[in-house]
Structures are given as C-alpha cells and as structure tokens.
Automatic annotation (TrEMBL):
Entry superkingdom: Bacteria
Cofactor(s) recorded in Swiss-Prot or TrEMBL: [4Fe-4S] cluster
Name of this protein: GTP 3',8-cyclase
Alphabetical UniProt keywords: 4Fe-4S, GTP-binding, Iron, Iron-sulfur, Lyase, Metal-binding, Molybdenum cofactor biosynthesis, Nucleotide-binding, S-adenosyl-L-methionine
Subunit structure of this chain's protein: Monomer and homodimer.
Binding sites annotated in the UniProt record for [4Fe-4S] cluster 2: C265, C268, C282
Domain Radical SAM core: 17-242
NCBIfam families in UniProt: moaA
One Pfam family it belongs to: Radical_SAM
Function in brief: Catalyzes the cyclization of GTP to (8S)-3',8-cyclo-7,8-dihydroguanosine 5'-triphosphate.
Enzyme Commission number(s) of this protein: 4.1.99.22
PROSITE patterns registered for this protein in UniProt: MOAA_NIFB_PQQE, RADICAL_SAM
Amino acid sequence: MQTIPIKPVGQAPLVDAFQRRYYYLRLSITDVCNFRCNYCLPNGYQPEANKPSFLTLNEIRLVVNSFAAMGTEKVRITGGEPTLRKDFLSIVETIAQQPAIKHIALTTNGYRMAKDVADWKAAGITSINVSIDSLDPRLFHRITGVDKFDDVMRGLERAFEIGYQKVKVNSVLMKALNETDFDQFLAWIKDKPIQMRFIELMQTGEMDHFFHKHHLSGQILADRLLKTGWILQEKGVLDGPANVFRHPDYVGEVGLIMPYEKNFCASCNRLRVSAKGKLHLCLFGEEGIELRDLLQSDDQQWQLQARISSALQGKREHHFLHQGDSGVRTNLASIGG
Ligand code: SAM
Ligand code: SF4
C-alpha cells in the first residue's frame, strides 16, 4: 500500500479555509511616528504606559524565519514610521539574510529618505512606498502636521538617483482636502516611473465625523481613470492590494486601493505582525494572536509555525468595514496600514 507523506501542521504553505495563499508578510516594527497625519495620528504618537516594548532584532529574525519556512517571499516593513528605529538597517540586513525572502519593501513617510536611501538599498530594501498626500507644500503640512514636503520630495529624487527604477507613492485622497490633487498627481507621473497609489480613507475607531466628512469613494476615481483611457491590469500573486491602471501616454501607473470594494478581500495574500508581536489576520476586526512567547529561541520554530497555521484557519472571508465595523483598530499606525 502506498503511504502518503503527511506534513506536520506548520510546515505546509500558508493557505486559509477559503483557499487563499499567503506569500506576503506586513511587519510593523514600531508604533512610533514623528508625523501627525490627520487621518492616522492627529495628536501625534502617544506613548502608552506599561506598554510592551517593540519586537527585538532577534524576535524579528525568528518571526521572519517561520513565515519564510511557510512560503512567504515578500516582507513589507512598516509602522508607525519604521525608519525611526535606531536598528533599522540591522533589521533590514537580518531579513535580507533569509534566502527565501526575495522582496523587502518599505513603507515610509520619507522624512529621512534623502539622507539615508542609499543605506537602505545597500541593506536590502528592494522597493519603497513613500506617502505624499499633496503636491502643494501647504496642504501637505496641513494633512501631515509637519513642514517636510521639500525633504520628502528630495528623498524621492535621491531614490531614483541611487538606482531605484520605480517608486510607489501613497496618497489618501480626501473630500474637501486634497481631492483636487488627483489631476496634479496624474500630470506629475506622466513622465516619471512612479506608481501613484490612491488609498481610500478607512474608518478607524478614532474617527467618525472625520470619516464622514472626508471619505471619497475609490470607485469615483476608477470611473474617472477608465473614462480617460487608463486600462486596468491583471494582478500577480505577490502584488499588494492595489488595482493597477496603465495608460499608453504615461510612464507612471496608478494603483487604487479600495477596501470598501465588494471583492477587495478575495485576493488577500497578506498577513500582519504588529510591532508588539501579535499576528493579525486582517487589518480590521480582531485583537491579534500573541506570538511573542514563541519568539524566544530557535527551538520554538515548529510551535510558532503551528500556531500561525492554525490561527489562519480562523481568518474570515472578508472584513466588515462596509457595515461600519472597524473592529478594535484605533488607528493604522498601530498595525502599519
Ligand atoms: N508611516 C509610514 C507612512 O506613512 O507611509 C508607514 C505607516 S502608515 C500607517 C502606512 C500607510 O497607511 C500610509 O500610506 C498612510 O497614508 C496609510 N493610512 C494610515 N491611516 C489610514 C486611514 N485611516 N485610511 C487609509 N489609509 C491610511
Ligand atoms: Fe505616521 Fe504614517 Fe500614520 Fe502619517 S500615516 S501619522 S506618517 S504612521
């Protein structure tokens, strides 16, 4: 009789009950941020009393090893502002040492990109997303709470100079704020290899009035793009959540991130680990599964993988944002957006 080899739980690739496969880990390394974006941390980062410290370099190594062993090929480092960590370069180098991880992406507010981007590249960052909510320095200041538009733009230029072929720019487009930047952003990427990503404002526990005043449906932007000759592209397995559009007359691309769209969750390929070491199956709607007790030594790898695999079986088919349920998420700085 032929025997069928059985892989222990935790050794198999990460697949959930809806047959979605997970190749992509979004790893937050700090909750701290030096910006005060009005949709994220309008009062700036507020340290919590008795808060557990953020993942150490060794804990990050162990978490990445386990995900890599279960098929993860891409890690996005996020925060808070990840580049505020003093050991940021060591973190990148540590992740880069894991051969299964082919892509290390960074999401940053870009405040130190002009100075440091060459070091980031040397350490192993393969792609960069930088947040720029307006091309008008005054509006940028109004939204982010800081007067750093010129620094961020210099950082972007520097990223191209030192050899990044393409950079993604994130912008949360909001009614009665930066909505009219849409056309300027399109004109800006006409001759630049930028993927301009418009993120639909998501409601979090800390905003209600703000959301209703400023939420702008991504569908409106999609309709505008389709009417002006932009063509929706097919997604690859490692691609993030954006619907990407291209236009024959433009060097740049547009990515729309529309979490309120009906099928947004069907292509979910990412899991999140917070800076305090909790696994989050979805950006919204759950408290997170503690991993930290299993991040103390290399010997715990199998147990850690088993916990991640079995937790994944509880991942819901979709979030409940449509019903106004943002779960327990007070803001996205605590989990990295
Ligand atoms: N500090 C870095 C930055 O701003 O790029 C990384 C962390 S930030 C939480 C990641 C992304 O989440 C940013 O592009 C930000 O614009 C986005 N974001 C934060 N809060 C959001 C919200 N309520 N709705 C939509 N996007 C949000
Ligand atoms: Fe900081 Fe990023 Fe949140 Fe802005 S969006 S406050 S830069 S974490």
